[in-house]
Known about the structure:
By secondary structure, this protein is mainly beta. It has one domain (20-211): Beta Barrel (Porin). Helix content is 10%, strand content 60%. The protein has 2 helices and 12 strands, in the order H-E-E-E-H-E-E-E-E-E-E-E-E-E. A hairpin with a 4-residue loop joins strand 10 and strand 11 (198-199). The radius of gyration is 29 Å and the shape is elongated. The two termini are 34 Å apart.
Amino acid sequence: MKKLFIGFILLIGFAFSQSSELTRGLGFAGGMPSGSGFSYRQMNENYGFQVTFGIMVFQEDDFEDYYTEGYKGSYVVNDWIPDTNQIFTDESYRNTRKWGNIGITYYKPLHRSNKSLFYGFIGGSTYYTSQTYQTRDYKYTLTSDSTFSYDPITDANEIKDNEFTFFVGAGLGIEYSITENIRIHLEMPITIVDNGNIFMYIPQGGIHYYFK
Length: 212
């Protein structure tokens, strides 16, 4: 009976120690295959995973102010004389830019110590960029013997450029516990981009606050 009681106490203690492990974390991460931005990270005994996402938008839509008037100037005949047949396409210097990404990573713990974890990982992410800008065609027009004006010959044309870039990577990483709840990690992946480029010496990392 005494042995059963001791065994029961040990079993309860083991279960309690397991449930008290901090395996889930919220924080920030940044990297090519991992994605960059807010991050949820979970490290269990035999496996782990991380989901990362980020987004930014820059609104600069004063296109009309940029194209209200043409540029006028006077030119002496002995100096540069513009070609009145040539068409110039001007692009707005202000535009709307959007950027976002999402990434997911799978972890395999290889060795644990008191405050650190050594692991392997594989992950992938996609980065999205979008840019909206305007273009307009201009020509030089002769207005007098020595004066030319630079005036629009078309309406402003809005252009949207959207691009997706995919990253896949695998490598090794180390997670270190600064405190009981705060952990940082540093990883070195071999990264393959969808355009065929391969990167090896670009690290990635993050910081997370862990809880039950």
